[in-house]
Amino acid sequence: MVMPALPKAAVAVGAAVIAAATLGGPSAQATPPSFPDVGAYPPIDLGDYRVQGAHPSTSGWAFRTPSGLRCQLSLIAELGVFCQGPLPGAQAELDMVSVSLTRPAQFGRSGTEVGDAIYPLLPTGTKIAPDNGVVCAVPSDDALACRAEKPASWPSDTPDPPDRRYGEHGFVVSPSGTQAF
Questions:
Q1: Residues 169, 149: Cα–Cα separation, whole Å
Q2: Is the pTM of this model over 0.85?
Q3: Domain contains 143
Q4: Cα–Cα dist 147/6, whole Å
Q5: Around Cβ 60, how many Cβ atoms within 10 Å?
Q6: How far apart, in whole angstroms, are the C-alpha atoms of residue 92 and residue 145?
């Protein structure tokens, strides 16, 4: 099933955050030992989560977690994933988190409400893994873990973009605390 594009406000907020966050060149980091193994979870059928936008940057996959986070995972790997909603374990004023292959996870405040677009549930104990280097899993009803790294399907000599570096980045949001790298 291909869902219609998300409301313009949701896409605009996500695009603005992603655009602002891609400035600069963070260094590559390794996944911390305490980070959940998002690859170990069974994948969902991507077709049920597909979003077709007017441009590749507004296309990809959308999902929500049991705890109410609504996420957009871009077709363009360098744009990564952007989530908005309740962030258990984070400061009260924060309501969004994003990560990509070229930048570490960032938490922030969106200042807008997520639209009423349909975000299919990503069930507990599953992952969404579109083979673009970004994988998100729901380890428990109140947690989300996303990791971004250069996909194994890319040639090992794939060059970094001129103003950024590919690396391993990710985040965990859970009541026991947030983690970002």
A1: 7
A2: no
A3: yes
A4: 23
A5: 27
A6: 19
